[in-house]
Each structure stands twice: as C-alpha cells, then as structure tokens.
Design brief:
Blueprint lengths: L1 E9 L2 E10 L5 E5 L6 H8 L7 E5 L5 H6 L3 E4 L11 H9 L8 H7 L15 H13 L5 E5 L7 H15 L4 E5 L3 H7 L2 E6 L2 E6 L1 H7 L3 E6 L14 E7 L2 E6 L2 H10 L7 E4 L2 H9 L6 E2 L2
Length: 296
C-alpha cells in the first residue's frame, strides 16, 4: 500500500498535502491526529471514495477501486445504520455473495465474535455487537487489508476490549490493519506503527515507545524548596522545563544523567521519575497545546 505525493483539497481547505506513505503486508498501523488533521480524507483516498488532486494511491499495485472490488480490501467506516428485519448471518452472507472469492460466512462470524449472535436481528443488537457486525461485513470479501475509521468510537470499555480481541485474531492470520483512532491507548496497545497526521502531512512515524522518546522519553519532577530555576534547561538530557508553584518538571531523554546532575546540585527533594505519556508526545508533535515549554 502506498501514497506518493498524494494531495486533496476541498475548496480552499487543503485536507491532505503531499502525503507519502508505505505500509507493508502484515502490519497493524494506527493513524493519530486531531479533528481536521486529514485522517478521514487519507482513508477516503485509500478506499477510492475520493480521487487525489495530485499524486497517486496504490493498493497491491493497482487502483484502490479495483482492489476494493476484488475483495482484497475491507473497510469499516464510522457511518452506517442497522438493516431492519435481517439476521446477522443473512447480512454477512448477502455481502459475501458480491465478492469473487469471499470468506466463508462462518469464519467471518467467528473472527468477529458473532457466532452466538448469528441468528439475531441486526437492528436488535447492542452497540458493541453492531460494531462487530460492521467488522464481519468488512471481512466478507476475505480481504488482505482492512481499514477502520474510529472503530471503537462510542463503545464502552468492555465492548472495546472484545472488539480488539477480534481484530487481533484477524491480524494473526498475516493480514494488514490500518485504523484511525482518538484513543491513544488503543494505538499504543495494538499498533506496530503509529502515524501522527497534522495539517494533512505525516509528522511522525514510529512505535509508541519511539514517539515517547522523541518527545522526551521521561519526566523528572522535584521540589524546588526555594531554589532558583536558572540552569535547569541546560542539565544533561533536558528538552523541556515546566515550573508550577514550588515544583519543577523536566522532560528528558536521559533521566539517569538528569538525576545525577540534580543530585550534584542538591536538588532531589521529592524526586519522582516517570515515563512520558503518549498523550504528551502527541501534543508535542502536533503543537496542540504542548504541556511544557521547549528548553532549546
């Protein structure tokens, strides 16, 4: 799967700007970004729902529209309404018949965790079960790549957990997963790679741990106890400093060196060392309310 200098505008709004991206077979990749960052537009280009104004998008060496028609790509989008008076099995079977080499219906139901619900009407399911039905429909063509746009939005914690169990079962078969989400913990827990999109471009491409390191991998906090704050930004590893009341927080790429330097300054009262969160890394990368000021 590849984007090459792909761009898309809607009037004066540039939704995607020169997007370059490769995703390898078998990867599970998360798209993170603020509302309006370009995630949904990128997914629309990937699925052939929109055409790029410039550049290209290719799936398995062919156009997105052809790859989708052949069943090699499945999609689960945010929008969709329950079909009345039809059972889960009937719906999945109907969709499967539209593809040249569909997944067996029983297998799609099993992977989606719907075997026990197969005979129930789609319009009488819970929110979590309805989301699994959308997943089963996306699997109906026996795709090698599945694309999910905010797949667990509005689901409770238990429904989210069950959904990701199903998704991991699909990925373990060697398939490729691309999903967008606002839940940073989901991206961290389930993605091999995290792509951070901002203003239509990819601003970071790494693992969750890599993103945290890039944003300053740890936080060192201590009580100032009246000590002046001058020079904190120059300590080894420190990339950002925040002072609140009588307590300092240092974002650092080398917490050991930072703590040793603080000890030499006799400044380790109330010392606390924690890993930087993915939330902080995301805010730093997108500039959307960075929680600490840059030290450089």
């Amino acid at each position: 799967m590849s984007f090459r200098h792909a761009a898309k505008s809607f009037g004066a709004v540039r939704a995607v700007t020169g997007l370059d991206l490769d995703i390898r077979c078998g990867e599970t990749v998360a798209l993170l970004g603020r509302n309006g960052a370009g995630k949904s537009t990128a997914i629309s280009l990937l699925l052939g729902l929109d055409e790029p104004d410039a550049g290209s998008v290719r799936l398995f060496g062919e156009s997105p529209a052809r790859a989708v028609r052949s069943g090699r790509v499945g999609a689960m989008l945010q929008e969709g309404r329950a079909v009345p008076r039809i059972t889960v099995r009937e719906l999945v079977a109907f969709v499967a018949r539209t593809y040249p080499a569909p997944m067996p219906v029983a297998e799609a139901l099993r992977l989606a965790g719907l075997t026990d619900c197969a005979g129930r009407r789609v319009d009488r399911l819970s929110g979590g079960q309805a989301q699994r039905v959308r997943f089963a429909v996306a699997l109906a063509g026996n795709p090698e790549l599945i694309v999910l746009d905010e797949p667990t939005a509005a689901l409770d914690v238990e429904a989210r957990r069950a959904f990701w169990e199903s998704m991991r079962a699909y990925a373990r078969l060697g398939n490729t997963v691309l999903f967008s989400t606002h839940y940073l913990d989901e991206a961290d827990a389930h993605a091999d790679r995290i792509l951070v999109v901002d203003r239509g471009r990819i601003v970071a491409d790494d693992t969750g741990a890599g993103l945290r390191r890039a944003a300053g991998g740890s936080l060192v906090a201590f009580d100032l106890a009246g000590r002046p704050t001058g020079g904190l930004a120059e300590l080894p590893g420190v990339v950002a400093v925040e002072v609140r009341a009588d307590r300092a927080r240092l974002r650092t790429t080398d917490p050991d060196a930072t703590v040793v330097a603080l000890a030499r300054l006799d400044a380790i009262r109330g010392l606390e060392v924690t890993a930087a969160s993915l939330d902080e890394a995301f805010l730093a990368l997108t500039g959307s309310g960075t929680p600490m000021e840059s030290a450089r």
